[in-house]
Amino acid sequence: MQTRTRDGLVLLLVGVLLGGGLAWLLGRRRESPPAAPRALDAVPAGALLVATVDLPALRASPAFASFLREEREIPGLGKVRDVCGFDPLAGLTEVAIAIPAAGEGGDFGLVAAGAVQDQALLACASKVIEARGGKPVVAGLGSFRAVRDSSAEGRGEIAVRPGGPILLGGDAYLRAMVDAAEGRAARVGASGAHDDIARAVGEGAARVTVVLTPEQRAELGRELAPSGAGRAPAASIVAGGAAVALGPEIAVHGAVLCDAEAPCAELGAQLRAARDARAGDLATRLIGLGAVLERVAIAADGKALHARVELSAEEASALVERLASLRGLRQPSLAPREPPAPAEPPALGGSAAPRGDAAPPRGHAAPRGDAGAPPPDAIIAPRRRPGPDDAGAP
Question: Model-level pTM?
Fold first, then answer.
């Protein structure tokens, strides 16, 4: 009897332990890990423009990967890794840019999410401010810590908290972003208009949505209305946006939402005419954009107007390269120059010997061992190829 009792107690204990362990495991499975912060979670409601970029998708795309792999530089200071010891953008996964509908001109906010090294980022920003002659000041801002240049008020601040996100913005708008990130203020996700245009253009590695205020719509209608004509179709625009989906084909989808069907259809006719005129323009064809514009399909669908086009990855990559070259985004690095030879000391005595640094005769340029720095246009502008009109030039 004692043996059976002892065995029963052992089995009961084992059962309790197994049951408790199973319950603990099931509870652990039900507990979802804390969600990583999204960039849009820090964008306040009331934004005029919101743009988002999926950085891993761009890094995986043949058309855009080369731009993200390039060494980033801080103007006047050198490469980011050399200045900071690391690249703050390397671990980021998402970036959002927002422009408020109300506020001072030039206000904007930038939010970056991903693997964030908060202390290293603050140290890097402080180092950059000091290198430019400023005075960095680090202060708490809710759960964030922000750094700014106290000697240049109004130039914006960088705020970050452990785990992210990173915020960049001006005084009042930065604080509005902090309130949105901490849940004390409404976020842009609460805006039905931004959600509507986002659904219209669909998902994409890059997406931008714009929602106009009634005042902006009225101003747009006045500016675009022909002289003496009635209400311009553009005055009916409520919101607009575009998305770029990456894959074997690069799909671009733009959309406009109107307050009525008739002006939306009229606006579509105007855009088709503008597309045809621009596609036949010589400058547009020279950069390879003419053939792309010819393939843009523009069609009205009730109170929505859609524009769609697809490009191959090779076509998109070539087009991006051309546009970047024209805008001077890729400047060739200049070869390091040797320092000029030291000048010979002046001869002592009655007759002066020729000097190595003697001034050239009047009217002649002084020779320079390094041939001088090239003019800015030679660095930024691409080399011009002879055109058909140059054949008869002397």
Answer: 0.71
